[in-house]
Design goal:
This protein is of the alpha/beta class. The chain has helices at residues 12-34, 44-56, 86-93, 117-130, 189-192, 208-217, 227-232, and strands at residues 5-9, 37-41, 68-72, 74-76, 143-146, 171-174, 184-187, 197-202, 243-249. Helices cover 31% and strands 17% of the residues. Keywords: Hydrolase.
Length: 255
C-alpha cells in the first residue's frame, strides 16, 4: 500500500469543488472498466459538503449511477431519518437527487429497526459479505471517503480504545463513544483498507494537530505503524491499496 500523499486546498469551498470532481472521475472510470463501483461515504461537515457538490456538478451526468453502490464506514445508532444519521445527511445532500435503485444503498440499520447496535452490526456484516469477492469479507471499494475528527478518529474508531486494533471482525458495535451519540456501528480498519483508494476530507484549524500526526505517520511504512500510533491517531492506519490522499484545507495543515 503506497504511503499517503498530501493534496492542499485553499479552503472548504475549493475542497468541496475539487473533491466532487475527483470522485465523479473515479466512479466514471470504475464503472467503465469494471461494470460497477463501490463507494464508501462518510458523514461530517466536509464529507457532506463534497456530496452536495456532486449533486450540483455538471459532470455528474458522466457517471452511470445505477452501477454505483453506496456504503457507509460508520453510522449513529439512532432512529430512521434522524438528523444525526450519516445516511440521512447523504440522502439530503446527494442521494435523493440520483434516482438510485433501492438495492444500491447499503444502509446500516437504525435503532427502530434493530433492538441493539450489535444486531445492526451483524446484519451489516452479512450485507457486506453478499457483495464480497470469493474469500473476502466485504466488497473491494473503488473509493472510500473518510473524515477525521480533531482527535484523529476515523469512522467510529476513536483514540485510546482497542477497536482500531480489531483484525478479525468486519463490523463493530461501539458503546460509550466519546463523541455523541454514544452508540454506533462501524467498519473495522481491515475492511476500510480493502479499498483501491482512500481519500481523507479534512478541513478546519481544529484538525491541524491531528493532521500533523497523520502526516508524520504517513512517512512510515505500514509495518511500522505500531499499536501505540494507531491508538493515538486511528486515521494513521487507513491506507488504500492503490492510493491514499489527504485532501486538506490550508488551515488544517498549518500548525
Amino acid at each position: 500500500m503506497p504511503n499517503p500523499i498530501l493534496v492542499p486546498h485553499a479552503d472548504k469551498g475549493q475542497l468541496a469543488l475539487a473533491g466532487g470532481s475527483r470522485i465523479i472521475n473515479v466512479l466514471s472510470t470504475a464503472v467503465a472498466e469494471q461494470g460497477l463501483a463501490h463507494l464508501s461515504v462518510t458523514g461530517g461537515t466536509m464529507g457532506i459538503a463534497v456530496l452536495a457538490n456532486i449533486a450540483e456538478n455538471p459532470l455528474r451526468s458522466t457517471v452511470d449511477w445505477s452501477k454505483v453502490h453506496f456504503w457507509w464506514s460508520d453510522e449513529r445508532f439512532v432512529t430512521t431519518e434522524h438528523e444525526d444519521r450519516n445516511e440521512q445527511q447523504a440522502k439530503d445532500a446527494l442521494l435523493e437527487a440520483l434516482d438510485l435503485p433501492a438495492e444500491n444503498l447499503h444502509i446500516i440499520g437504525a435503532s427502530d429497526v434493530f433492538e441493539t447496535a450489535e444486531a445492526a452490526a451483524g446484519a451489516y456484516a452479512h450485507e457486506l459479505a453478499r457483495f464480497a469477492p470469493h474469500g473476502e469479507a466485504s466488497p473491494r471499494f473503488s473509493l472510500t471517503l473518510l473524515g477525521m475528527g480533531p482527535d484523529g478518529h476515523i469512522a467510529s474508531l476513536f483514540p485510546g480504545r482497542t477497536e482500531i486494533l480489531e483484525a478479525q471482525q468486519v463490523t463493530l458495535a461501539i458503546q460509550d463513544s466519546p463523541k455523541p451519540p454514544p452508540t454506533r456501528v462501524t467498519l473495522t480498519l481491515p475492511v476500510i483498507n480493502f479499498s483501491e483508494r482512500i481519500w481523507f476530507l479534512i478541513a478546519g484549524s481544529d484538525k491541524a494537530e491531528a493532521t500533523a500526526r497523520l502526516l508524520k505517520a504517513s512517512q512510515l511504512a505500514e509495518t511500522e505503524l505500531t499499536a501505540e500510533i494507531l491508538q493515538e491517531t486511528p486515521a494513521a492506519g487507513a491506507r488504500g491499496m492503490l492510493e491514499t490522499l489527504v485532501l486538506a484545507t490550508q488551515d488544517a495543515i498549518s500548525s
